[in-house]
Design goal:
Elements lengths: L18 H7 L22 H4 L1 E3 L10 H18 L15 H8 L6 H8 E6 L3 E9 L1 E5 L8 E4 L6 E2 L15 E4 L5 E2 L4 H5 L9 E5 L2 H10 L1 E5 L5 E9 L7 H7 L14 H10 L1 H10 L4 E6 L17 E4 L9 E6 L6 E7 L9 E8 L1 H8 L2 E11 L2 H5 L3
Parallel strand pairs: 3-16, 4-10, 13-15
Antiparallel strand pairs: 1-2, 2-17, 3-17, 4-9, 5-9, 6-7, 7-8, 10-11, 11-12, 13-16, 14-15, 14-17
């Protein structure tokens, strides 16, 4: 088990696919703050209770440290207002189940954070408890609020003409919602501008720019993550987050590159990693631009004024404290214990986020914050292991679990 800080290469295994690369190689969005694409087909509805749960070990048997418990307590406290007011899609808990722990968390003060979890929680194993965890981070790229020499790549806010079709103007999506698009000058509903059109200037000069970046490749990958920081030459930082998407289907450039033999483990291939994909694009600018344009999906941003990127609970996600999970199997806001092949990801986390690629029981995406160390750890994080979900004491008795 991990003790103390965040080692850079502790128990490092051969590089495997991170959540970011899984996103690039898949047809769905990655973890973090980007919701599934419109019309995305999700697996059949299941819950943790339907899958099957059993009582886990006592918390006293887990190697919980004061540092990780303090981080988890702080994140749990921030989640409490939402936890006590939302329906738990896993069917494990009810809003009122969380009230004793949330009340105690609000008034815990300087008491032992380990004792807090011992006092108010019990563990549950969902399914067989076999887990897999990847990593995500908050990118930081060069950017400014006002256009200036060297910063010519627009970062767009949500355009007002990007709307859902009125009933009867288009075919509904598979989930029953109307598709996103725009109405042309004749009042006819049509698809919104795709990535290539937007980057060729379809939105230029309309006042939708919220910032300007230096590198179009970094902006593309910032869209993959769904949130990030723009850092100006004078050190000023602007935090931005997901505001919407143009309604067009996502095409995985990683999958395209793999299918064309551009990335992989073979001779002459680039590594099947985020870094390898970026390297190919930079070394082959024309082909790289064409590859990015094959992904017609385009993400728009909004400025975030809080102290961290917001997760699915609309509260900030915290480095080495927050994980994305599938809310059908983990109550959002619940603490989660991970015991993985990567020691730096072992320990206590809080489920505060979701992601289009984070589906299924015991599938997690660990958040590592911003900066180069976070980027390195998240980009290489892919670890099997075991997971336990912490639920309020009395939950298992109410569910009839012995």
């Amino acid at each position: 088990m991990r003790r103390g800080g965040l080692p850079r290469r502790l128990d490092r295994k051969p590089a495997r696919m991170s959540a970011v690369v899984a996103f690039l190689l898949s047809l769905s969005s990655c973890a973090s703050v980007i919701p599934p694409e419109p019309g995305a087909q999700l697996p059949p509805a299941e819950t943790a209770v339907a899958l099957g749960v059993e009582r886990g070990p006592a918390l006293s048997r887990l190697s919980l440290t004061a540092t990780e418990a303090a981080r988890a307590l702080a994140s749990f406290r921030e989640s409490c207002p939402r936890v006590m007011s939302r329906t738990d899609g896993s069917a494990l808990t009810r809003p009122e189940d969380w009230r004793p722990a949330c009340t105690a968390a609000e008034n815990w003060g300087t008491g032992s954070p380990i004792l807090f979890f011992f006092s108010y929680f019990e563990t549950v194993r969902v399914g067989d408890g076999k887990a897999h965890a990847t990593g995500y981070y908050e990118p930081e790229i060069a950017g400014v609020r006002t256009r200036q020499p060297g910063f010519d790549v627009p970062v767009y806010g949500l355009p007002p003409d990007l709307v859902r079709a009125k009933t009867g103007d288009a075919k509904p999506l598979a989930d029953g919602r109307m598709p996103r698009g725009r109405y042309d000058a004749d009042g006819r509903f049509t698809a919104y501008w795709d990535r290539a059109a937007i980057e060729q200037g379809a939105l230029m000069g309309r006042g939708h720019e919220i910032a300007w970046a230096q590198d179009p490749v970094e902006v593309f990958f910032l869209q993959v993550q769904g949130s990030g920081r723009l850092k100006a030459p004078d050190g000023a930082v602007m935090r931005i987050g997901y505001a919407g998407q143009n309604g067009l289907p996502y095409t995985s450039i990683g999958k395209v590159m793999r299918d064309r033999g551009l990335i992989g483990d073979g001779p002459g291939q680039y590594p099947a990693s985020m870094q390898g994909i970026m390297q190919y694009i930079r070394e082959h600018p024309a082909e790289g631009k064409a590859l990015m344009d094959e992904n017609k999906s385009y993400v728009f941003f909004r400025e975030l004024t809080g102290d961290g990127p917001l997760g699915a609970l609309s509260v900030p996600v915290r480095p080495h404290a927050s994980v994305a999970a599938d809310p059908r199997f983990v109550p959002l806001g619940a603490p989660v214990w991970l015991d993985l092949d990567r020691r730096e990801a072992d320990g206590l986390w809080v489920a505060q986020d979701t992601g289009g690629a984070i589906k299924g029981a015991n599938r997690f995406d660990t958040f590592w914050g911003a900066g180069e160390q976070a980027r390195e750890i998240a980009g290489d994080m892919s670890a099997p292991g075991k997971a336990l979900v912490l639920v309020p004491k009395g939950t298992l008795a109410r569910l009839g679990v012995r």
